[in-house]
Amino acid sequence: MELERFKKIKEKYQYYASWAVWAEGEMPMHNVGDLSVLDPTSNKQLLEQLNPNIVLVALNIAAADIEKPWGNFHSDWHHAQDYKIRHAVKDTPVWGAYMTDIIKDHPELVAANVQAYLAQNPDVERKHVQNFKQELKDIGANKPKLIAFGNVVYKILTRNLRNDFDIFKINHYSHFMNSFAYRNQVLELCEEMKM
To answer: Residue 64 pLDDT more than 80?
Structure first.
């Protein structure tokens, strides 16, 4: 990734998206919120790790409290499950993937509520899908593989984009499973994707 593109992506999406790169942690939840690893001036290897051709897609932000650039998917809140993503993708081809939400500016903790809202407002879903396609262009994705976090996102992506992209699915990281089972799911997905 070139620095100029990285800066443009950050300027436009820093409070909605992030990258699948985390600081090391002695314990599973330790250092998940350390965002210094997403600063190319302090992490000299960052830009070569980033891969916009693998995109992890969640539904929406759970709460409107992302105050730090690239803070999405890097919560250090003690109830957050973001640490599972770090554990699952470490030392796999998914490390460095771009991560974003398909629905922006719609904070909601319960996915079923978002799903109901979209069912009642199909024009909203179409608008967000169009914005997502633009986001993929902005990050420089070239035939990206989309990985949905959970069934709801998978349905949205396949309903709208199945003719345009290869779409895969893993459980949402908040799913009731331990981080080792979640990692096994990612490893199986890497085999399926031939990565």
So the answer is: no
